[in-house]
Design goal:
Blueprint: H1 28-31, H2 37-40, E1 43-45, E2 59-61, H3 63-77, E3 97-98, E4 101-102, H4 104-114, E5 132-135, H5 136-143, E6 146-149, E7 152-159, E8 162-170, H6 175-178, E9 186-190, E10 193-194, H7 200-210, E11 217-224, E12 227-234, E13 236-239, E14 243-250, E15 253-260, H8 268-280, E16 285-289, E17 295-297, H9 298-309, H10 311-314, E18 318-323, E19 333-336, E20 354-359, H11 366-375, E21 380-385, E22 393-394, E23 398-400, E24 403-406, E25 410-413, E26 429-430, E27 433-434, H12 445-454, H13 459-468, E28 478-479, E29 482-483, E30 491-493
Parallel strand pairs: 1-2, 15-16, 16-20, 17-30, 20-21, 21-26
Antiparallel strand pairs: 3-4, 5-24, 6-13, 7-8, 7-29, 9-10, 9-11, 11-12, 14-15, 18-19, 18-25, 22-25, 23-24, 27-28
């Protein structure tokens, strides 16, 4: 959702609302109106553990100053500003203490969360499931695809009332990969604590092992194909590789398979390599696996869509119209298809008339814009898997006092003004996530259906064969679990304005 290719998805050069002090008490015009977020920015409560990491110089203030900034920011920028409830900032919910000390995070989180619209979609879910706040250090690490961890994606589900955690994906060159973990493995326990241990000590031990706060090795009990075994891993600082690709030779077909997990800057070099390789191999069909892609920079989705469609179809066409609230209608703009991404490197042009996208509830935001943008210029996109998350909204990240806020500011539609998929995009072929096969394996459930669709089979034929012909005994099976990732990772970010 951005203007020109500089607009974006999640730029690290955050579009910040100024820094420093008040409005300047001698300005009579300022006294006649509420202070702006620019005037209120970076006045931080002295009790804040986050202010030292702010992107701009700050000055000491009170918790009330940060709440005033939130109120001004939401009033100015929030897409549903008309629906913001009238909150009493002095309420105890917004002034939380813990063990006699002010709990800055909980107080601000409650105030920010309660400022969001209560509106619901046609299916009864909240329209705004996506606005968030996060400490700025963690936000920057996410944008850079750097984190401290093991390097796996996990899914949470239940079976006969018991919790189940299954490995959905293992990133290359990570502790999890080195330990031999595989897609479909189930985590039964950590450091002797069972996943289903309900004691306070057991829960604390399991959670510390799964998401460690201290550098130390942890022992995981794993279930694979009916057998249990232990592996030891230590979380490290890692940079996640968000792209894998290959060409599948199926009969006379050359099928490009692109696994793409996050629209972050570090993914671009791999994306360009992948699309260049597909062009060199003269692929006949393309499968883009976005089942776990929660979004990121819109500029990357744009460049990848341009690469798929090719110059003839995409040049001069609108990738996404960005629409703000009525008070910001002058900022509405068209983001045109562009072959250059964030790093000003050109993506190759494949010129495909149709692609297959593997999707799930984890397919969100920029990933949905990729799909919608292609459909807007009549490139056929067949969805296989599950309904997407339903997020046609975007934002400019805003740092204040070491906390990054992402209030949804705009809605995107394609060149045909199609969009408004707040209840998600429905697949043409519904297929559960097949955790019994590696991603990119031609026999994996979603991918096998895509291949059969290319061969002319109906969805019912393709899905029936995929389900009936595989031995799923003892594995993670066909899973409807929910990815264990924070909601704030499901987002579309816009580049900082110049």
């Amino acid at each position: 959702m951005f203007r020109s290719r500089a607009i974006l998805m999640c730029t690290l050069g955050l579009f910040l609302v100024g820094c420093g002090g008040g409005s300047g008490g001698q300005d009579n015009s300022a006294s006649a109106r509420p202070p702006t977020s620019r005037e209120l920015a970076q006045i931080c409560t002295k009790d804040s553990p986050y202010a030292a990491k702010s992107s701009k110089p700050s000055q000491l203030g009170e918790l009330a100053d940060e709440k005033k900034w939130i109120k001004a920011y939401m009033s100015e920028r929030y897409l549903w500003y008309k629906d913001i409830p009238n909150l009493n900032s002095e309420d105890s919910r917004y002034n939380v203490s813990s063990n006699g000390a002010l709990d800055v995070w909980t107080s601000l989180l409650n105030y920010f969360s309660d400022s969001k619209t209560p509106l619901k979609t046609a299916l009864g879910t909240l329209v705004d499931k996506f606005s968030f706040m996060i400490d700025t250090v963690s936000w920057n690490s996410f944008v850079e695809s750097n984190l401290r961890g093991y390097g796996f994606m996990l899914k949470r589900s239940t079976n006969a009332g018991l919790k189940v955690i299954t490995v959905a994906y293992v990133y290359p060159n990570t502790p999890a990969k080195s330990a031999g973990l595989m897609r479909g493995d189930q985590i039964l326990g950590v450091d002797g604590a069972s996943l289903n241990d309900t004691s306070a000590q057991g829960i604390a031990t399991f959670n510390e092992g799964l998401s460690p706060t201290q550098p130390a090795p942890h022992t995981f009990q794993i279930l694979r194909a009916g057998a249990t075994f232990n592996v030891s891993m230590q979380a490290t600082n890692i940079t996640l590789q968000q792209v894998e690709y290959k060409v599948l030779n199926v009969g006379s077909q050359k099928i490009g398979y692109l696994l793409f997990n996050s629209h972050v800057p570090g993914a671009e070099a791999y994306l360009i390599q992948a699309m260049t390789y597909f062009k060199q191999q003269a692929i006949s069909d393309l499968v883009v696996d976005l089942r776990y892609n929660g979004g990121g920079y819109l500029a990357i989705a744009n460049a990848l869509a341009y690469s798929v469609a090719g110059r003839e179809k995409a040049q001069g066409k609108v990738f996404e119209w960005t629409q703000f609230s009525d008070k910001r209608s002058s900022e509405n703009y068209a983001m045109y298809f562009n072959s250059f991404g964030l790093n000003n490197q050109a993506y190759p042009s494949l010129g495909l008339a149709k692609i297959y996208v593997l999707a799930s509830s984890g397919t969100c935001s920029a990933s949905e814009s990729f799909i919608n943008g292609l459909r807007g210029i009549d490139v056929q996109v067949e969805l296989i898997g599950g309904t997407t998350c339903g997020k046609p909204y975007g934002f400019y990240p805003q740092d204040n006092c070491g906390i990054t806020y992402g209030a949804m500011e705009m809605e995107g539609v394609n060149a045909k003004f199609e969009g408004r998929f707040s209840d998600g995009m429905t697949p043409q072929c519904t297929v559960l996530d097949d955790l019994s096969r590696p991603l990119g394996d031609a026999s994996e459930g979603m991918l096998s259906v895509a291949i059969k669709r290319m061969q002319g089979q109906s969805c019912s034929q393709a899905a029936g064969l995929a389900i009936g012909s595989q031995d799923l005994l003892g594995m993670g099976l066909r899973d409807q679990g929910v990815l264990l990732r924070p909601d704030w990772q499901n987002n579309k970010f816009l580049q900082a304005k110049p």
